[in-house]
Amino acid sequence: MRIPAVLGATMERPHVTARGRLWRDAWGGVRYEFLVPVRLSETARAAFPELNTATGPTGGGTALWGPVEDEADLADFLARFANLGLTVVEMRVLPD
Fold first, then answer.
1. Which CA distances in Å does 53 have to 57, 66, 86?
2. CA 20 to CA 23: how far, in whole Å?
3. CA 79 and chain centroid, separation
4. Do the beta carbons of residue 36 and residue 24 sit within 8 Å?
5. How many CB atoms lie within 10 A of CB 79?
6. Which domains does the chain have, with CATH numbers?
7. pTM of the model as a whole
8. What residues contact 64, with CB distance under 8 A and at least 6 apart?
């Protein structure tokens, strides 16, 4: 997966499942989940109005999930995380 250059300094290459790699070529619009290692404030959550949020799976951090329509939409989400200084530690395509 290609990560925009603007993100290179603030986040590691996220893990993408095999299904995610296949989907990248088809871009049919699916749900993605993003995990960040910190609990987001209401202000930070407001930067992602189209995503649902919950406490991360290990009880810390935050999980955000919702629809991603295409590669440009995915790049926009990743840029918003970077602009807020947030590191995405995992990113995956959710099952249907």
1. 12, 9, 15
2. 5
3. 10
4. no
5. 13
6. 5-93 (3.30.70)
7. 0.70
8. 33, 34, 35, 36, 40, 48, 51, 52, 53
Give me 50's structure tokens: 């189209």
The whole-angstrom separation of Cα 96 and Cα 11 is 27
> CA of 95: how far to CAs of 17, 28, 75, 77, in Å?
11, 13, 21, 19
Which residues does 53 contact at the CB level (< 8 Å), separation at least 6? Answer: 40, 45, 62, 63, 64
Nearest Cα to 33, choosing from 91, 82, 96?
A: 91
**pLDDT tens track for 16-60:** 444 444 344 454 679 999 999 999 999 999 999 999 999 988 878
Per DSSP, the residues of 16-69 read --HHHHHHHHH---EEEEEEESSPPPHHHHHT-TTSEEEE-TTSSSEEEEEEE-
Q: How far apart are CA 58 and CA 45, in angstroms?
A: 19
